[in-house]
UniProtKB/TrEMBL annotation:
This is PI3K/PI4K catalytic domain-containing protein. The lineage of its organism: Eukaryota, Amoebozoa, Evosea, Eumycetozoa, Dictyostelia. Residues 25-48 are annotated as: Disordered. Pfam families: PI3_PI4_kinase. InterPro entries: P4KG1-8, PI3/4_kinase_cat_dom. Belongs to the PI3/PI4-kinase family. Type II PI4K subfamily. GO terms for molecular function: ATP binding; kinase activity. It comes from Polysphondylium violaceum. Keywords: ATP-binding, Kinase, Nucleotide-binding, Transferase. PROSITE patterns: PI3_4_KINASE_3 (PS50290). It comes from the Eukaryota. Residues 31-48 have a biased composition (Polar residues). Residues 111-408 form the PI3K/PI4K catalytic domain.
Amino acid sequence: MISIAPTPLYLPAEEANKAVRSPIFQRKDVSSSSMKDGQQTTTTPINNSVEIEKPIINTPAIIIDNTKNNNININNEFKPFVKKATHPIYYGSLNQEQSQLIESSDIGILGSAPKITTEGLGGGVYFLSKGGKQQSHPVSVFKPKDEENGIIGPNHTIQGLKNGTMPGEGVYKEVAVYLFDQLNKGFFKVPTTTLVRIQHPLWNNNDTDLPTTKIGSLQEYVVYEDSAEGMGCSKFSTPDVHRIGLLDCLIFNCDRHTGNLLVVAKDDPQSSFDQLELIPIDHSLCLPSPDNLSDAWFDWIHFPQAKVPFTREVKEMILSMDIDKIIESLHNKLPKLRLQCLETLKITTTFVKKAIEANLTLYQIGTLMSRLHLDEPSCLEKIVYKVNSHRLFKQHHRFQHHLRSASYWNYLEKEIDLFLIDY
């Protein structure tokens, strides 16, 4: 059994950054560098025809010969394949970026073996590179489902690394956050991510009794200058902090620290200095069950940019979200993602929309969604608990969901409105 320490309270940024580190390469050279009044509450349609555990069929499959070139060297690395090895797993079609990511990763396995990292809390993380002396960085990052933290043990189906999460579902959440971003026209700039099945003898350590295939999330590797951990927040633009913060609030991120915010340098023709841009990664610990909203973690809550009001354009973008259509699309494309996770997405989106209508800042929204004291529920937790305790919903089973219940969402919106009036 794996014992996990409780989420720490908010610490000064320099101390909080030491608690968690992201498994990323370091290259430090930055010297140049809802519903309105009168509208009817909608419910989310769920396609009951989708079988959650139905095996993948009619998906493109690339057959490989995994009986050759599987010798181990002293670094526990394997010789590369001579054939392709990446199988896309998808209910629906891939977009162009996802297809290109799979193709480049196949070339990576052809050129060099996956390399596992030694850091990070989320479990096994592998870098896929094209190989060769000219290759300075990986092309993609692969996170296997069966190596997520907590997957091994008698209680592995009950509790994940954070409250409300379950081991083995992080790979679906990684893909879900990317798809969520794409459904919002790429506003949040989440790197291209997709679900794949990869074959390689590395997975069975040359034991023929073990499988050579792993299912997991595959994400584009982003070339970056540093993580936000290595830079002062004064270098980040207010729009970037707002973009990252809103994403984290909408997906209820339980693991947003400065180590998993990548700083990318963009050429600025109007300046002698590069423009810095924040790219969010590591989203396996988001969208917990709606009855476990205790572990929100937002490092940006200490940034001064979080206290700056949102622009009109950002407000309009968030308020225009059709969360019911988004949830329906995510469920159709990722049917193995728990419906309770999608219920959380609707709760947080409803709350964020109401807060933006009330002209709250990102700092205020993040504070209302976070526990400031370990033993005291957040304001959002109290609202959700009050709604769930209503006699109409009290007998609701914890593994069921409220996505079809119009009365539930009407009552939730009413309680949020009452809270914000007195806030």
